[in-house]
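FYI - complex with 2-phosphoglyceric acid, inputs then prediction.
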Amino acid sequence: MLTGVESNRQRNVRFKLSRLLKIGNEKPKKKKKMSVQEYLDKHLLSRKIEDAVNAAVRAKTSDPVLFIANHMKKAVSSVITKVKARQILDSRGIPTVEVDLHTNKGVFRASVPSGDSSGTYEAVELRDGDKGTYLGNSVAKAVKNINEKISEALIGMDPKLQAQIDQAMIDLDKTEKKNELGANAILAVSIAACKAGAAEKEVPLCKHLSDLSGRANMILPVPAFTVLSGGKHASNHFAIQEIMILPVGASRFEEALQWGSETYHHLKAVITEKKDSLGCNVGEDGGLAPDISSLKEGLELVKEAINRTGYNDKIKIAIDVAATNFCIGTKYDLDIKSPNKSGQNFKSADDMIDMYKELCAEYPIVFIEDPFDKEDWEHTKYFSSLGICQVVGDDLLMSNSKRIERAIQELACNALLLKVNQIGTVTEAIEVVKLARDAQWGVVTSHRCGETEDSFISDLSVGLATGVIKAGAPCRGERTMKYNQLLRIEEELGDQAVYAGEDWRQTL
Ligand code: 2PG
Ligand code: MG
């Protein structure tokens, strides 16, 4: 029984313990005793408790104790007390970084994705490189950097101050591409801090992000669902990485998700009928991966699936060519994954332009991502100037501010694919979106092929009103959790929820 008065048994235990520890006879150090009144005065306790009680009375709450507890909690500002990282696996079974950021009020978790492309201009993903462990992919160094260096640097900081937290990590790293601590280490902490900041403000994460970016309104993005996979993301012979569908004609995100799911399942049936059910195996992003020989064949399958839904022109199509992956010198080898190459599919950049023109005339294609090699600025620029569809820079830009500035100046493309892990902090991600927006570009918030159970990008896409989110197929847990989070956001925003719909290009 807890009475506050020491029982005989407790006294006995204390006595035995003190004898064991030989401290029983030690004279206690002389310390000036603080009186009860002094303690109350020091912590302004009487006034704070009185305030809390008054507030509860004013609110006439049915649960005054809970009200007072919450009121008291709010009176203390949140500070980071510890950052603890660990190695987890991403959706491909490859190690990545997860972080628990502790404040005096709670624990906030974040993890970072990883992709197939990694280029000279993107922030460095720190991997251990020991071939005997996870084939060189373990991230123990990044984890250690968080637990030892980053944690120490951030203790005591206010999680609401995102820019200061990110700057502290950038200063600690001291390299341009975050080689020292690892962008995977820095980003995991940056995202976890952002979640802690939102919780401290008692606002949804998307609202906190919207505030950080200085944007007034939040917008639910149009989902670009990957329905067909190829390229490096699937084991078929299709060179093109993704064919996506965008339900721009839906009235709400919830409806867009329904249309996406229905199209995906119709596509499964179409593939089973026209090819075989083996073609319904999926790629890394969850897209179906039949063995198709051409972009046109893939588009036909998708068109047929859309027709079967009955939504027809309310669903548009997009393509991520990821052309760098099959560019050989100045040619594009569309048979690169095929064992029986005929040589007929070896195309020049001009041939590729002709193919895109034809396909855009025949199918409702609204954007093409990476239509050429990442260093082929000239053809990308020329193709953009034709104004046939939006041209999204992914490998071309690598979410790098210098590449984006160059592309803006040279009018090379007109939309940014935003991959937060290529940048390394939330603050810098917000900055590159501003760069793109100032140039009247579109922005597509993107997942990576190696994803985790973190849905941060969903809130990011709403908070920054990027207009489009590309988070893979409407299937597979690590993809659907991004879309499901958008359902929750839409529900939470209620009457205030706005779906980008037909305005997906420019949600300014
Ligand atoms: C892309 C992404 C996501 P990865 O190219 O757009 O599909 O792929 O993560 O492999 O870079
Ligand atoms: Mg891409």
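The two ends are 63 Å apart (CA to CA). Residues 80-202 form a domain with the Enolase-like; domain 1 fold (CATH 3.30.390.10).
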